[in-house]
Amino acid sequence: MAGHSKWNNIKNKKGAEDDKRAKIFGQISKQIRIAVKEGKSDNPNFNPMLRTILEKARSANMPKDNITRAINRGMGKSATGAAIQEITYEGFGPGGAPIIAVALTDNQNRTTSDIRYAFSRHGGSLGSPGSAMYMFERSQNGDYVPTIPMEISAEDQVQLRSLADALLEYEDVEDVYTVIPLDEE
Questions:
Q1: 177 pairs with which residues across the strands?
Q2: Which of 55, 64, 70, 107 has the highest count of CB atoms within 10 angstroms of its CB?
Q3: What does the DSSP assignment read for 61-103?
Q4: Could you give the CA distance from residue 21 to residue 60 in angstroms, rounded to a whole number?
């Protein structure tokens, strides 16, 4: 009787709990990076937003190494000492909807391959620089706002949201912009 051992039950339960914790740690890491970047300080005494998020990280029992790594990435340093650069990827999702993904990475080849993989798995294609950028303009706060309205079907909207979610799953991807608001459900 496969799957009925005590070890297998513990392994499955622990695996599910670890997946939930990893997702929470990823979200908190992203919040830490954003707080450090916006506050321009890695010192919680001078950055109240960072202080609040660090309290949240401690209450979630996030390891100190993960917190330090997120703070360093927010300050533009990587564990290997390589400079972290911002790269903007452009592409098209289902229904031809333009997508812009902004990533902070210390390894451009890895990030490009991850993003290309996400696009191909969700019915999209990674474009060349300038292929989708003309459909957006940069706002005062640094976000990309669509300038050319585009109608896409409800089915394509669902696929576009799943593509945006898949892109945001990667640690390097900071923001994803499309012609539809991603906040709505």
A1: 100
A2: 70
A3: T--HHHHHHHHHHHTTB-TTSPBPEEEEEEEE-GGG-EEEEEE
A4: 8
- Tell me the residue range of the domain where 99 lies: 85-178
Whether the full predicted model's pTM is greater than 0.70, yes or no, is no
Are both 68 and 93 inside the same structural domain? no
In this structure, the dihedral spanned by the alpha carbons of residues 8, 9, 13 and 19, taken in order and rounded to 10 degrees, is 20
Whether 96 maps to a domain, the answer reads yes
Q: pLDDT tens across 90-126, in order?
A: 999 888 889 999 988 878 898 999 999 999 998 889 9
Contacts of 29 (CB under 8 A, 6+ apart): 66, 69, 70, 73, 171
Convert the pLDDT of each residue in 15-58 to its tens digit: 888 888 888 888 888 888 888 888 888 888 888 888 899 999 99
